[in-house]
Please model this.
Amino acid sequence: MIGRGLEGLQAASIERGPLHAMDQTPKPGSLIVEMRNVTKDFPGVRALSGVDFQLRSGGELRGLVGKNGAGKSTLMNVLTGVFPPESGEIRIQGRSFARLTTTISRQLGIACVHQHSQLVPSLSIAENVFCGSLPVTRLGLVDWGSVYSQTAQRLGSMGLDIEVRRKVEGLSVAERQIIEIAKALFAEARIIILDEATAPLPKNEVEMLFGFVRRQRDQGAAFVYISHYLEEIFELCETVTVMKDGRNIGDYVVSDLTQAELIRLISGAEVERFRHETRSRAGDVLLEVRGLDRPGYYEGLSLTLQRAEIVGLTGLEGCGKDSLARALFGMEPRGTGQVTLEGRPYHAGSPREALNRGVAYLPRDRHGHGIIGLRSVRENVTLPILSRLANILGFVSRRREQALVRDLIQKLNIVTPSMMQAVQFLSGGNQQKVVFAKLASVEPKVLFLDEPTQGVDVQAKTEILKIIDQLSREQGVAVVVISEEIRELLDICDRILVMFKGRIIREFPAHDPQTTVESILHAVEGTAAE
Amino acid sequence: MTSRRAVPILLDNLIWLLLLLALIVFSTLTGRFLTVFNITNILVHSAVLGIMVIGQSFTLVTGNFDLSAESNLGLIAVLGAFLMTASGEPFNGSGIVLSPVLTLLIMFAVGLVIGALNGQLITRLKMNNFIVTLSMLIIIRGLAFLVTHGKTVTGIPEGFKALGNGSLGPVPISVIVLLAAFALAFFVTRSTRFGRDLYAVGGNIDAATVSGIDAHKRIRQVYLISGAMAAFAAWIELGRLGVGATRIGENMIFEIQAAAVIGGISLFGGRGTMLGALGGVLLLSSINSGLNLMQVSGFAIDMVRGIVILAAMLIDAQKTRYASVSAQRAIGKRGRA
Model:
């Protein structure tokens, strides 16, 4: 993912703007959106205080960045009519509003594409695209011929060759995302908010999406792109609005900024870049995989993990990197091959068996598989180790449990009012830390982390990398980090394995000067010059 | 600061406030409400409902429910009475005249078998819990009819009836049993690994599985508990009524679920406590008793019950919203400090 940013830096610099904030240098084109002095309160919190925000007509690619809780989503929710503001003015295409409703906002051509799919899984692609406005024949029946042909034609014009009668439930997350963005555009939206839209997308499809977004910009659509992946802001956006503590602290021309400057603006302070130090190891082999084969997923996989080692595993979506982790954790069948843990044969048929042998897993999908949002921080953390905390009668010792959780909250710097707080109300970064606390509580020997920093802000990312390093350093845990963020892998890992079509094709020592983001990216794409 | 802490505590214990309110309202409206006789009566009437609510709450916490519970209660009750009694008028029994102990063993076995069947169908054959237990509700009620062809069974041995109609000094045994059962259920759900697993399964079954919980095993276990609780409730009900009838428990499922939900057990799983469910049982019984004393018609009582359930859902929705807002507030404060 980071590599994408590097390429993006060059792409973005093609269009250089003057070297100061945009407010002083109005571009040609009237304002299509003008939010003035918008204030929004939630009980006890001022989510937005006096925010100004403008978009120009005639095509714009605007980045919107800020830490979790900085007010990005609240501002966009005001624009899409989800929240009424306390005060301020919203002018859209010259019409003034004190507040919008979702209906009015949609009629004004404002659409929002969320990270989580809003499509109906049981309906066909075409039906989803036309949802709510299905064309009818003179008899009042749905004109299916027209639904299918128009959808196919429209998707075709985007370069998407896909059977429009297929049901959405059969699509990958990436395909759903693209259909959803296409749907918003078909609905004649002129202002499109992409809220972390690329988070679930693999690299090659992000590029397809960006190409599409640029073409639409050229047709005059304005995009607001919310993302934690700053590299993508540099790749896609011309201008960027930075928010902090409910205020707009400035609009900037992207090509005037460096990534470090942008990070400083977002956090209000220099965020240290964490770098893991490779330690010398006595060759203490912990986990050994020999010739693991699962047709359709991976083949001939062999790898050795040493105690206290951090290994990166990267590759394109569908290369088998995440299937391997789930198989070794007992969530999926693992196929044939030999696996030994501490010299003894290892075979986990269920997560419970894996945990019992000291193998733990952090799922990619935090909300689906990581946290139990309804329940408290305390209950989430101790879930896998309750039997260890129970006395002879089977009752869990509240005192021991609280001590353990208090310790982990402190160690991992989890920001929560109390350990009784329901996890769903914590920020993304803190939710992820709760999952880490849960994994740490089982005192694992081997840890598989699937996209551990996905959807958390820049500061929380650094903290999470530190936690990974700490687990490996202090408890000797062997960690496998599965990620597409190659720069992050370079920062945290001792070595990086690249998978391509089910095979491990290259291994890079992370601290070798020969190892660069580019060289790894080439391997990821399967184009390494051997 | 005090009010900020007090409000969530108040919301979590809202059921007790509502119960207090009901007691005040009814004791103002009718002088016969707040008497030792009537309070005892309310508690006795709560016993069967309460035991059924315990079984139901176990399934609800995991995000499932057991609609068949009321038929289960009916079948086990009438079968138990049938096995223990003489044949022919006026007893209408089987003529086998089994001993109460053996009968109880059979009753619990039937409850567990039905529970096991529900659990297996839902977890092994991946059938929808609503459809499975709805079908069982109908099938088992049919079976209950087949036992005596609708005839009422009398002549149940006195020893067997003690649980339902006996008393220790001034306190009815069924009331002691009810409170003890809730206390046990409360501690099991709150403080054992088994109980905590149930909340995890109901809160997010995938996350629970990844955390090493065998979610399907837990679901099978709660259906076993639900079946056993139906047998236990049947034992009390036979004692209280003194006769076995095919229609025992009919339409009770609404009241069972209402009591649990009013007490704060979420229909979507993962939320609520057994103590709250007990509050829900007592509130519903108090409302029934109060309205009966005021000689309100049965239809009006049903309406009031419906309104109470709606109110409970409203409060639950507001509670969730308040929790979200207060969390934002607390985190926002911490963030700025």
Q: What stands out?
A: Chain A touches chain B at residues 42-45, 69, 245, 329, 331, 350-352, 354-356, 361, 363, 368-375, 379, 383-384, 386-387, 390, 394-396, 398, 415-417, 421-422, 424-427, 438 (CB under 8 Å).
